[in-house]
Fold this sequence. Notes:
Layout: E1 7-12, H1 15-26, E2 38-41, E3 49-54, E4 67-71, H2 75-84, E5 93-94, E6 99-104, E7 110-114
Parallel strand pairs: 1-3, 4-7
Antiparallel strand pairs: 2-3, 5-6, 6-7
Amino acid sequence: MHYPLGTIILYARNMQATADFYCRHFGFTTTGEAHEGLIELFAPAGGAGILVHQAAKSVKLGQVGVKLSFHVEDITAFIRQAGENGLEFGPLHQANGYSFANAKDPDQNAISISSRAFRHH
C-alpha cells in the first residue's frame, strides 16, 4: 500500500498573514477565503498542500516538534530573493553533499530550505 502525505495543517494566530507568507515565499496558491475555518493552500508544482487553521488562544505555537522543509536547488539564490521579500534565513549550513538554511514563519513554526533532494549520489 502507498499512503502519500497530502496535507499539512498549520495553526496560526493570523490565518491570512500565514497564508500570504507561504504564497509569497514558497509559491503556494489560494483563494485566500476561509472555508470551514480553514484557508487551503495548493502547491502548483506538486507536493503536499497546507491547510491554515485558526489557533485557539490556548495553543502554544512555534514548537520545534515539526519543521517544514522545502526542496530548493539553488539555496544561495533563494536566500537572496527571500531577503528582498522580507524573509531572513539563518546561516547557510553545508552537509553531506547538500546545503540548508532555517527560518521561522509568522507563527514561529520552524521552516527550512534544503538542496538535499538534488544532491548527486
